[in-house]
Amino acid sequence: MPPASPHPPAPSRTARRLTFFFILSLLAVLAAFGVAIRVSLDNAYREAELETAYSAKVLQQHLHRALETVDLSLLHAADRVRGEDWNTLRSSEENWRILSDLAARLPQVRSIWLVDARGRMLLYSAQFPAPDLNVAQQEYFSRAVALDGGHVIGPLLPGRFTGRPFFTVSRPVRDRRGRLLGVAVAALEPSYLAEFHARTNLGSGAVALLSSDGVILSRYPFIPEVVGRKAPHPALLEALAQKRIEGTLIMGGGPLSGLVVASFLRLAGEPLVVVANKPVSEIRAGFLHGLPLMAGPLFLSLVFMTALFFVHLRKAREEDRSRAALAESEARFRLVTEHAGEIISLHDASGRVVFMSPSCIRVMGYPPEVLAESPPEEFIHPPDRELVRDALARPVFQEKRHAKAAFRVQHADGRIIWLEVGLSPVLDERGEVVQAIAIGRDVTARRELEELKEHVEHITRHDLKTPLICALSVPRILRGHGNLRPDQLQLLDHLEKTSRKMLDMINRSLDLYKMEAGIYAVRPVSVDLLGLVLGGVEEMRNLARARSLAVEVRVDGEPPELGDTLQVRGEDLLLQSLFLNLLGNALEAAPEGGTVGVELSREDRFVRLAVQNMGAVPEAVRGRFFEKYSTHGKEFGTGLGTYAVRLIAEVHGGSVGFETSEERGTTVWVLLPVAH
Q1: Topology of domain 510-673, per CATH?
Q2: Alpha-carbon span 7 to 30, nearest angstrom
């Protein structure tokens, strides 16, 4: 970044710039004022929509509760007379008083009456005895009779006695066997809606209660000529015809002149619609009333912008000095990062690379621009991506603390190398992560040494496993025999011998490490492989006995005879470990009650040692049978047995292989050089 100029701009140029910016600012303020006027008007309409929607919602909820109360009252009345003799209900003054008190307690109810199954009125809350009327032809009666339960809301009807319109809520009354006894009916007072709206002061607009087909049942303020007729708003009628549940419209054509903002809302489960509106003229009047208040901020904005541009030049000079200091700081930072041996990178709050030091070429083989333009996940070894998220990304970007982790990445030449990365968050004044600094170094060599050490330890633990099984089986046998006898003492001696062999194997762990590293020097002697095999079979006899297995040893297809030997060149302890691994694996894999075969044969310059057992090697591990950690289905298996066999065979100049099938079982063989 070039350094800032030490000289301020020429005065004339500064004056022109200030004038230019002042004119732009003036135009911007005027444009903002125009936008503010438009936004304010839109907000006024939006507030009117919210006000009418709120009024409709409150009325809908209140009417819903009122209808529920009426329905519960009808249900109570039905339960009261269900067990009565309906032939005497008409003359029951007690039941009439109960019905009259029930109607008096409900402000939304004008009257309640009870009719029998033929439509004849039995009880009427407003008069005793009830008038001699038959309502069988009324729609509210026929619709209620058709119900098994629940209630039905009827159309608007003129009052027979008062002349005032009303609408009904009716429900059937059935006995306990479901037979129709009659119908309970409540006449609802439409003016209840207007009275509630007046009490609650929900707004200055009008509200109305409509049937689902648009007929006005009630209105506030009350206009007599519109009650009982369809709403004179085509847009509203179209919305109701489309079965819309709720909505807000700007419409005209009503009893009042001008447009209105109207919100409608259906009552859930009822054929009723609540409508609330507000005249557009009232909305505009409120907006114009508040318009002068917006002129004050306009004037203050002009004054502020004028003062702001007078101090602009001084601030610009300060910013130039700050940029120069920042450029100098960045130059020092780049000097450090370009000559550092580690990769130094800067990341934004999302983890994207903002800066990458050139040392990434030496470590990973990629130039900085490649790493900066690609997501970090592309270079991380797939199995380690979750580790990076859990051990680095989450602690730094979510928990806001330093974190360190080692993981694998892909080098530009295709190699997989190990990086150890420390990541630290950079927090702003609010404590939020704005950036993160990472320092990474190549630890491939160190990891390889650690893995070699770990592998040697695994191999050593695996070699200890077979003698340990023998040692652990002896106490179980002793507990089964009771008091110690000479043969039990022999078993204890055998346990001591096995433990001593385990110590010898521990002492050989360094040799296994050297084999894996390719630096082991064999000290071969002539070893009787047949004697070694027979000794190993004896050592593993307890394991074989515990699984009811027989072990058969053959030399060139025949049982060995006393005095037979078969000499190979090698180290005795290593060859013992090789055979015990093979035999132990076979004894563990063979089905109980079967036979494990050990076959020794001469093949040219080699002796072939083969161990056979029934059971096939699982398909999943056949391709990596002699690789490290190859195991399947063994609870305590480490996957190092056949790997150690291959190492020992190869360091002796031999080779290994296996054959497996479901029919013939599995045979693992080793070729070892014959002793000359």
Answers
A1: Heat Shock Protein 90 (3.30.565)
A2: 35
